Amino acid sequence: MPIDLQLLRKDQGGNPDLVEESQRRRFKDVQIISAIQELDRDCRQQVKQVDNINKEMRLLSKAVGEIMKKVSELPLFACRQRGGGKKYSKKKKKKKEKTEKRSLSAKELEEVEKLKQKKLELEEGQKKLEKELEENISKRNKLLQQIGNIVHDSVPVSRDEKDNKLIRQWGAKPMKTGKERHHHELLWMCVLLIQERGRKGMKE
């Protein structure tokens, strides 16, 4: 499991120097820290850009909606009349609601087309940006997996086991008799023993 990415972000309370020192103790490449930080900055910046594009596209959609509202149905009221052109009395007069649609003007249509075209351009830019973001995240995470856990200060710095410190020991060290067996030999002996028990069980 890789280390927490926040350890490499100073603005979030991280400590990149601690990670670099841990890499030195492991005799690993320290430059990988800078590479991860650079990719991480790019990723965070691209995330903000994607968010801003989404906000701008929502505003464009809202602007188009405001213009299209002008095409909504407008109420008109008309009174029915008797023959001879006389109107009903106020008590019997009925108002019938009629509706009609108003077409957009040439200027309004042009404005709508401009807004839609701008939104399409933003969508194309967003797709390209999201693809770059995905690639950068993949690169960053692959590098991050190459960093091990932070080495504790008590761990001796050495390329091999010869500098390991003896913390404690207990019991008497057994004397070698020359009859010791390797672990793979013991494993085969156990397997043969199990097989032999199986044969006896089948005969019985």
CATH architecture: Orthogonal Bundle
What is the name of the CATH superfamily?
A: Serine-tRNA synthetase, tRNA binding domain
Helix content: 40-55%
The overall strand count is 2
CATH class: Mainly Alpha
Organism: Reticulomyxa filosa
GO molecular function: ATP binding; serine-tRNA ligase activity
Domain Serine-tRNA synthetase type1 N-terminal: 3-76
GO biological process, one term: seryl-tRNA aminoacylation
Explain what the structure shows.
With about 200 residues, this protein is mainly α. The chain has one domain (about 5-155): Orthogonal Bundle (Helix Hairpins), CATH 1.10.287.40. The protein is built from four helices and two strands. The chain has a two-stranded antiparallel sheet. Helix 2 runs antiparallel to helix 3 (about 105-145). It starts with 15 loop residues before the first helix and ends with a helix.
Structural features:
Helix Hairpins, mainly alpha, single chain, two-stranded antiparallel sheet, 53% helix, 204 residues, 4 helices, elongated
Q: Strands, helices and their partners?
A:
Layout: H1 16-25, H2 31-68, E1 74-79, E2 95-100, H3 106-144, H4 183-203
Antiparallel strand pairs: 1-2
Helix pairs in contact: 2-3
Question: In brief, what are we looking at here?
Answer:
Helices cover 53% and strands 6% of the residues.
